[in-house]
Amino acid sequence: MASSSQSVSEMLADLGMECRVDADGVWASVPCTRRGFVAVRIVAAERTVTLRAFIMRNPDLGHQDVYRRLLRKNDETGVWAFSLDALGDVFLVATHPRIAVDPEVLDGLLGALSTLVDETFEGMVRTGFEIPPDVSVGPPPVGGWLNES
């Protein structure tokens, strides 16, 4: 893998994905059926590439149930792992050796992210927030955050 942000943005372009580069890394928008688009930050360091995606804010209720479910799911997620920030917001994080990242590997990582979000999002939201059973949990209206000014 060549220079960090430039190389990541070139790989994303090879995959047909738009991205935004800033001081924090390269940002891409990954489509998910259940949640809509998920913003993922990709940072290429000297030896690793780290991907971090916000999944949902701190649950209003059932914190222990949500966090227990996510910790159990970590055994099945492969390279991706659920994590929490200081506020209790839920993220997915993956770290991969930089030397092994090419467009095909990056596509696989982003595809695995999309699949994992689709498998877990509705259950997390229904456990962590008061949502009537007859209310659908689905993606927000179509529109990408990358194009917002």
Describe this structure in words.
By secondary structure, the chain is α+β, with helices and mostly antiparallel strands. It has helices spanning 4-14, 63-73, 103-128, and strands at 19-22, 25-32, 36-44, 48-56, 80-84, 90-97. It is 32% helix and 29% strand. Strands 1-2-3-4-6-5 form a 6-stranded antiparallel β-sheet. It contains 3 helices and 6 strands, in the order αββββαββα. The chain is globular and about 45 Å long.
- The rough form would be described as globular
Lateral strand order in the biggest sheet: 1-2-3-4-6-5
Secondary structure class reads: alpha+beta
Helix content: 25-40%
What would you say about this model in short?
This protein has 149 residues and is α+β, with helices and mostly antiparallel strands. Helix content is 32%, strand content 29%. The longest helix is centred in the last third of the chain and has 26 residues, at 103-128.
Name a few traits of the molecule.
32% helix, six-stranded antiparallel sheet, 6 strands, 149 residues, globular, 3 helices, alpha+beta
What layout of secondary structure does this protein have?
Blueprint (H helix, E strand, L loop, with lengths): L3 H11 L4 E4 L2 E8 L3 E9 L3 E9 L6 H11 L6 E5 L5 E8 L5 H26 L21
Antiparallel strand pairs: 1-2, 2-3, 3-4, 4-6, 5-6
